[in-house]
Amino acid sequence: MSLPRHRDAVYSPGMHEAPQPLDPLSSFVTAVDHVGIAVADLDAAIAFHTKHFGLEVTHIEVNEEQGVREAMLRAPGDTEGAAVQLLAPATPESTIAKFLDRNGPGLQQLAYRVTDVEAAAEALRSAGLRVLYPQARRGTANSKVNFVHPKDAGGVLVELVEPAADQPATH
């Protein structure tokens, strides 16, 4: 059986509609928060993205718990859209160092902004997905984060981010 060519395709209502989301989780996800890129040299990566794409650094920090140096970048004037997070290892044992050893630099994660990271993680666990931490951990700018195992998310490490109460909706 072959698929119809585009001009021969027939549309019927409901044919291409997405499946309905899990009711409990759909109320938690509010936006794509950021994409994370693993890099060996944070300063060089910042220079590349600012020079070639005109992105602006909106936040830099060292997250000792996760063993990373990180920077959040945005398009000029964009305060609400998805950010680019550059992640460099702060220690050779960090998850990012291991990722770089295994895969080299590149896209490392996709992060969804949620209203309640603990409730979102519980809804995903109830749906049979593996969530990496029993309780949320501190993320960028004191956000709370947890992750869905890549084997349960089509090979993508999915981060759930609940911004800190004293921070804007995005980092």
From TrEMBL:
Matches recorded under InterPro entries: Glyas_Bleomycin-R_OHBP_Dase, MeMalonyl-CoA_epimerase, MMCE/EMCE_epimerase, VOC_core
Keywords, sorted A to Z: Metal-binding
Molecular functions per Gene Ontology: metal ion binding; methylmalonyl-CoA epimerase activity
One Gene Ontology term from the biological process aspect of the record: L-methylmalonyl-CoA metabolic process
Keyword Metal-binding tagged: yes
A Pfam family reported for this protein in Swiss-Prot or TrEMBL: Glyoxalase_4
Domain VOC: 31-163
Family to which the UniProt record says this protein belongs: Belongs to the methylmalonyl-CoA epimerase family.
Protein name: Methylmalonyl-CoA epimerase
